[in-house]
Here is the input.
Amino acid sequence: MINITCYSPQRQFFELENVDEVSDMLPDKNNLVWMDLQDPTPEELDLVRDEFHFHPLAMEDAAASHMRPKINEYDGFYFVVFYSVSVHGHKKHHIHLRELSMFMGGNYLVTIHKLPVPELEGARHRWAQNLEEIDRGIGILLYSLMDAMVDNYFPVLDTLAEKLEKLEDTIYEENSDGNIGDLLAVKRDLLRLRRVLAPERDVLNVLTRRDSPIFNRRTLEYFQDIYDHILRITEAIDNFRDLASSALEARLSVSSNNLNKVMRTMTAATIILMTDALIAGIYGMNFVNIPELHWEYGYFGSLALMLVISIGLLIFFKKRGWF
Here is the structure.
């Protein structure tokens, strides 16, 4: 599916139905073209390559999946890989990453993605607003799109932080060993975010260079704002990862302590039963010369002896905290 949104000083915003008409818009640098392709076919990718004359290596990266966020500078255009992040799942709250490949030239932006990217629709409205208030260059469209994507990182991080806080509250509760898996899941999601944000920070470093042939100085200030947001989110992720690691270590320590308590209790119970078994074993031997063997009250006396020793050992172990 291909959507083409154009802007010209005469017609303002309008849609193009035919890809071939793009070549008529591009020669005039006052015209701006945004072409969006969702789950494109190989034929559509070939059509875009021929229309914009993109480098084969860039087209190869755009057709691939699970690319690392990056920015490559080619003759006349930039190729950028960025990620949209969202949370899905009512109980597990796992994060979901959507890859977005972007080609940006002097007056055009081509976005390619396999999965729907919710921020694209909001970026259209931001573009129309920022175009009048900030600048009429294509860089404002890229800023509007990236800013919308980065803004959605904050609620995702808040969701993970809230889940981590709830797990921390249950660390010292009994029967909470199942939370270890949830803590590991939060750590894994934070790591996935970190792996995306770290290279995206490098992307913004390149876009904020003063020698960019596409952006003017005023536009660079807005990309610096996105860079500051990513830097803040990255620092927050690092803090939450440390908290998750500490919570996991605390949970494992509590589990180990509980296991030690169970082992002490079982050891104490074993000692008491072994003592009783020792008395029963002695009087169960088949020797004739056992003094109490023919005693009238020997059975009850041995039971009383077992009871007294067991109670004594129970009191001893209880004072030591083994029960």
Notes: The first strand starts at residue 2 and ends at 8. The chain has a mean pLDDT of 83. The beta strands are 2-8, 12-16, 32-38, 70-74, 77-88, 94-104, 108-113.
